[in-house]
Amino acid sequence: MTEVRHNGGRYGKALAAVGAATALAAGAAAPTMAMTATGGERYVALGDSYTSGPGIPQQTGGDCARSSVNYPSLTAKKLRQKSFRDVSCSGATTADMWQAQGANAPQLNALGKGTRLVTVGIGGNDVGFGEIIRTCAQLSVSDPAGDPCRKQYTESGTDELTGRINDTAPKIAKVLAAIHQRAPKAKVVLVGYPSIMPDNGVGCFPNVPIAAGDVSYLRDTEKKLNAMLQEQAGKAHIRFADTYRATVGHDVCRPAAGRWIEGAQPSRPAAPFHPNADGEQAMSRPVISQARAR
């Protein structure tokens, strides 16, 4: 049996990496006065770290940690968009569509009447991705074979994370309405989240410090989030890009050669629990498909 230590060994290193990941997910500094931005590029990408691609070379965008090969950049190249602007930012929530995130202007400022395509990937930080991963990782050492994280989030008799997803739904609806208002002629694609935990529910503790029973709990929670996003896209009469199905089988527990979502200790350039370059490439495919659809 593998020895598990709270402050050392494989588990300790993995937990330290989780801490670094959740610190990154917290994003840029507290909001300050927004920089002036003139919107109107034909393709504008909005979103959080799953859009921006932290850690994947080449990094741009300062503290927003954007990659030059994230799915917006790949989409722009494939669609031959000569007028393109990516304002996605690590740590972004729906509130950052309207408010400055550190030195970064509100993301909606990038839109204009000349915008013809908008992709947006948001909602995970409203639900609390970073805090959830950190909490589940810390609790996993207490019961590696059990489901301590699920027990904590359901101890009140209801599922707190399901409640957070439900509370995020109207925020997504508000974002989509604002995009339409600012870019009335644009095709809008709402982008879901990739397959982070194994779809078969089988984890890989301690390499990824999530207790065995919590792997399926977190998988199902993410599926609920994606289902909510798809529902909001339908209500807004816009396209939804299903990046979950596009990445199944390439989750955090896969061998490095076939892993598109890095685990607690990335073996390729990426933030922990985030897509690497192959993951962003895979995410771009359904985004491109939906952008092309009539």
UniProtKB/TrEMBL annotation:
Superkingdom to which the source organism belongs: Bacteria
EC number: 3.1.-.-
Record's signal peptide: 1-28
InterPro entries xrefs: SEST-like, SGNH_hydro, SGNH_hydro_sf
Keyword terms: Hydrolase, Signal
Region (Disordered): 264-294
Recorded GO MF terms: hydrolase activity
Domain SGNH hydrolase-type esterase: 45-282
Protein name from the UniProt record: SGNH/GDSL hydrolase family protein
Naturally occurring in which organism (per UniProt): Streptomyces orinoci
Upper lineage: Bacteria, Bacillati, Actinomycetota, Actinomycetes, Kitasatosporales
